[in-house]
Amino acid sequence: MIAYKYDFVPAGEQTLHIAFPEQIDVSENQLIQELAQQLRSRFIYEITDIVPAYRTLTISFDIRKTTYYEFSSKLKDFLAHYVPDTKNDHGRIFEVPVCYDSEFGIDLEDVAAFGNISVEELIKLHSTNNYFIYMMGFLPGFAFMGNVPDQIAMPRLSAPRASIAPGSVAIAGKQAGMYPVDSPGGWRILGRTPITLYTPNNPLPPFQAGDWIKFSQIDRTDYSAIKELDAHGEYQLKIISE
Amino acid sequence: MPHIEIINSGLSTTIQDLGRTGHQAKGIPVSGAIDQYSHRLANILVNNSEKSATLEFSILGPTIEFNVETFIAITGGDSAPILNDSNISLNTTYPVKKGDILAFHPMKSGRFGYIAFAGNGLQVESILGSRSTNTRLNLGGYHGRALAKGDSLTIDNCYQMPSLVNRSLPWNEPTGNSIRFIKGPQWNMFSESAKQMFKDGPFTISSQADRMGFRLDGPTLEIPQKNMLSEGAVLGNIQITRAGQPIALLADRQTAGGYPVIATIIGADLGKFVQFSSNSPLLFEEISLKEATAALRSQYHFLSELADSIYQKRYQYPIGPIRKTSKKIEEMIFNS
């Protein structure tokens, strides 16, 4: 039995969303991640791609092999008899090093002022939390994470910046994220990780939706050392628990 | 090594195939040919798998020198191709030999053109199962970028083309100004007046139109008050921005989006949509999911029938040609 209500919504003639209750909720999202894996292997013939997001599972299928009506009825049947995996390991925890130098963390002062705390307290709050990855995208390596502690959950800038450096570690309200490539964006930037989050020769990120991220504070010396190691492919993200 | 050399890059000329599917969950965009119908057709004409990599260009095609013996076919917009100073037809397979030069005039109509090369297309490294280029991410294709003057691309020699004379299809300009859609996932979030304005249009494709998506000019739609959580972005989705402007999401779209999706352009009309000129107004016409399914299936059916019918004619006269010897053999047979 699936504990949540869900609907099937056509998103194209070859794609449907399974829409779960509209909320940002770790257990609901863990079910979505689990279903993504199960459905991918169960319907390997029909499915061409499957994209878990906060509260939706987007499933694309090959119209030469099935139709929306036929496939959604198969899926309904599968879900009606689905028994969630109670042994689910609920993801790995990756430790991502972050340098909170003021040169990198250009919004540290503003966010600290928002939370009525010192910059040191802000860094401590940000780096003691474990962040759940609800979804990957819109870019490769961009992890939409939560939940940022309420006290420091400052809303995004009203006008986005034209350019944000790759590796920037940022928050937007309750959401946390990291910028894999130079791109425009309105999130509040607290620091920068020395690790490469996206490279065209090896485009898949090491972590995936359903995993957790913990930020660990490093100083400028460590930052340079890790950046150097990572550039030679010799740095491995620490996995705290599997 | 057999190859082609780029004498002139043309505009936004990139290597594309059917796209990098299966990795959107990790944020990797699909990419691939923006007009998949034309890409598939070009490959069928030169006896390739539909997955073979073609060259996609925009408005102005590249100038290419061949250092290879093979066959080519050009599809898509009216790109007015020229092979060694003679005009050649679209949707038709031609043999090319070493030293031949292919060039183009600027397109008379349409936006995207495709060049398919026999012998399974352009041979570049496949990344995550695809040779498609995403220039924003510097990913895939030829060093992750659009082609430039002096680039040299590997292609296999191909000496034979079964039933070459039958490898031609009339090229017709797409007719009518309607683009069919099905209701999008957030259709019901929009007000009645917004839905009506969307159906009444008309819209034109704005200058902000690239492989990621086309922004449309036209009536400004009233937007839903409620915010939504980001969800998977789907090929052909029409999002409405906070300013009330539609954006159609295309090949290089990001994997997720947070704007409400009012409609999805049907798969069978995507090729027509991406070739639409900025000067012609277009109207969106609603159809059912069932009709959209039938339309796309019939398009696939047309292409597979075409491939079959060409294949079946392979033993009809004139056979071949195996170019290097065919002329000689012909003379021996018919003069004896």
From TrEMBL, chain A:
- GO molecular function term, any single one: ATP binding
Occurrences of domain Carboxyltransferase (ranges): 6-204
Full protein name: Allophanate hydrolase
Q: Which residues cross the membrane?
A: none
Species in which this protein is naturally found: Liquorilactobacillus mali KCTC 3596 = DSM 20444
Q: Which InterPro entries match?
A: CT_C_D, Cyclophilin-like_dom_sf, PxpB
Keywords of the record, alphabetical order, are: ATP-binding, Hydrolase, Nucleotide-binding
UniProtKB/TrEMBL annotation, chain B:
Q: Which SMART domains match?
A: AHS2
- Keyword Hydrolase present in the record's keywords: the answer is yes
Gene3D superfamilies listed in its UniProt record: Cyclophilin-like (2.40.100.10)
Question: Which Pfam families does this chain map to?
Answer: CT_A_B
Carboxyltransferase domain residues: 25-303
Entry's InterPro entries?
A: CT_A_B, Cyclophilin-like_dom_sf, PxpC
Arranged from A to Z, the UniProt key words for this protein are: ATP-binding, Hydrolase, Nucleotide-binding
Instruction: Show which residues constitute the signal peptide.
Output: none
Quote one Gene Ontology molecular function term.
Answer: ATP binding
Q: Which NCBIfam families match?
A: urea_amlyse_rel (TIGR00724)
Could you tell me what this protein is called?
A: Carboxyltransferase domain-containing protein
* Species this chain originates from: Liquorilactobacillus mali KCTC 3596 = DSM 20444
